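Suppose you are handed only these lines of text.
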Amino acid sequence: MTTIGGYTGAVRKAVVPAAGLGTRFLPATKATPKEMLPVVDKPAIQYVVEEAVAAGLDDVLFITGRSKRPLEDHFDRNFELEEALSRKGDEERLALVTESTDLALIHYVRQGDPLGLGHAVLMAQSHVGNEPFAVLLGDDLIDPRDPVLPRMLAIREEFGGSVICLMEVPRESISLYGCPAVTPTDEADVVIVTDLVEKPDVADAPSTLAVIGRYLLDPAAFAVLARTEPGRGGEIQLTDALRVLATMPSEEGGGVRGVVFSGRRYDTGDRLSYLQASIMLASEREDLGPDLRDWLKEFVAGLQ
Ligand code: G1P
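From them, the structure of the protein bound to 1-O-phosphono-alpha-D-glucopyranose can be written out as follows.
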């Protein structure tokens, strides 16, 4: 199959890079993949797969690395546990166990050398082929009540090219993110990306829009990634490939638009934001919410 850009078919596949070391969460991540840390009572990565599936992308490819077996096991059957719960007649918990197995058609490829996010995405080429595809980063948890993928899919369907997700952030935190230069369009939440820089210094940032870990990529991205040299941190950066795509003609699969997201998003790769995500999601749950909220009020009142 030749990989030429500008493919106009629907997005069906999601790629989820999960090869990172999770050093920000040591020692918890010494023997447990960071993607498996629970947010309330579900591994962070399951929220991401559920988000993809809810948007109609039920073919999910994980790009994994060493020590990611627990992640593979989580999306596989656990006969022993299923058998035990079923013997006890505990249908409710049995459903929780089989939920992740039945969620999607899951595939895996190993990244081998950890050469960066761009390299991880390039590993998806033989599975994805000449189709547009989504990339979802596990550290970004989009609140299930504020889905962004449907809007991004609609923009891809209308204009082709690639679509990234952007969020306004305070200028002082822009150096944690990819950052685009943009021009507005007639739609308030859509911009045209004219340039991109990975984790700029605050003084050099072309905007205060941060790239959030949701991407729809034209298959032309693969050829671009294959010739992308290591960039920031000596890694092959997806941001650098998007920068090239932004200036390529649309007939070749170029063009990058941004959807400016204003919903709830948590960075589960950051400890403080991870704790906030757990508390916010738990406090709004029917089973845990009322008790947690009561306790929180008391707790906060007691804080100096
Ligand atoms: C990656 C991307 C960056 C993006 C961020 C979103 O960085 O390289 O452009 O803004 O994800 O979460 P990371 O956070 O993996 O260092």
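What can we learn from it? The radius of gyration is 20 Å. The mean pLDDT is 93.
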